[in-house]
Design a protein that fits this description.
It contains 7 helices and no strands. The chain is an all-alpha fold. The protein has one domain (32-152). The protein starts with a helix and ends in an 8-residue tail after the last helix.
């Protein structure tokens, strides 16, 4: 029962929301097609969210956080668990070669992730409760328009 509640909490947090694309990693690899890029990004983000949900559940159990965390507990879990996954996702996006001609779009997605991360770090309440706009609204719109929608969530 508790596991199901935490899964529901994790899904809700995902719905709430989620660089510098000039890294050498992107330029040293051949460009991907848009279809390949979206497929890899979706697969990575899906695996990441499953891992994030497990880590949130483990963290909550280890710290005695109930299935109905209060504001402070949500902020604690987000800053301790969720934002680490956002940082990893940013690095993943930076490491993938952008599809030829789509470099600006990918750079815009990465920059919006970085802006959401910065706002979440500066103001932890932004990711832990209804907030308008929440930190990853732009990222969700950009990833939905480009293809890997699930990557737009925090």
């Amino acid at each position: 029962m508790i596991r199901g509640c935490w899964l529901a909490v994790a899904v809700l947090l995902l719905l709430v929301g989620c660089g510098d694309s000039g890294s050498d990693d992107q330029t040293s690899q051949p460009a991907l097609s848009k279809k390949q890029f979206v497929h890899r990004a979706d697969a990575y983000c899906t695996r990441g969210y499953k891992a994030q949900a497990r880590e949130m559940e483990k963290y909550a159990q280890a710290h005695g956080i109930s299935s109905s965390p209060d504001q402070a507990e949500r902020e604690e879990m987000n800053t301790t668990v969720v934002l680490d996954f956002v940082r990893e996702k940013i690095e993943f996006f930076k490491s993938m070669p952008a599809p030829e001609g789509d470099e600006a779009e990918i750079r815009q997605i990465i920059e919006s992730m970085e802006a959401g991360l910065a706002l979440s770090e500066e103001e932890p309440t932004a990711l832990a409760k209804p907030y308008d706009p929440e930190p990853f609204t732009e990222t969700r719109h950009l990833t939905a328009a480009y293809g890997p929608f699930v990557c737009g969530q925090a």
